[in-house]
Amino acid sequence: MVKKCMGDPSLIVQTKNVGIKENLSCEETPVQILDRQVRKLRTKEDASVKVLWRNQLVEKATWEAEEDMKMRYPHLFESGENAVEGNNFVLSTP
To answer: Which residues form the Chromo domain (predicted)?
Structure first.
């Protein structure tokens, strides 16, 4: 059986106003290029790279267009850790 309960206003805890943004989304940033592949179509070649995103497992890596990734994230394609040798990327362990 449910009984009515009278609340005690002295037991209410006052909270501070917490600012929440209207846009609750977060942007994923790429960490490393894992692989590269070129698909040969009838009239052109389509280059794709496999991208490892921050806070994701390797199994969740996605294939993205190489041109788009070069424009948005050129630091991933600079010489050094992710240097291109032939058609494969050289992977380094952190």
So the answer is: 32-78
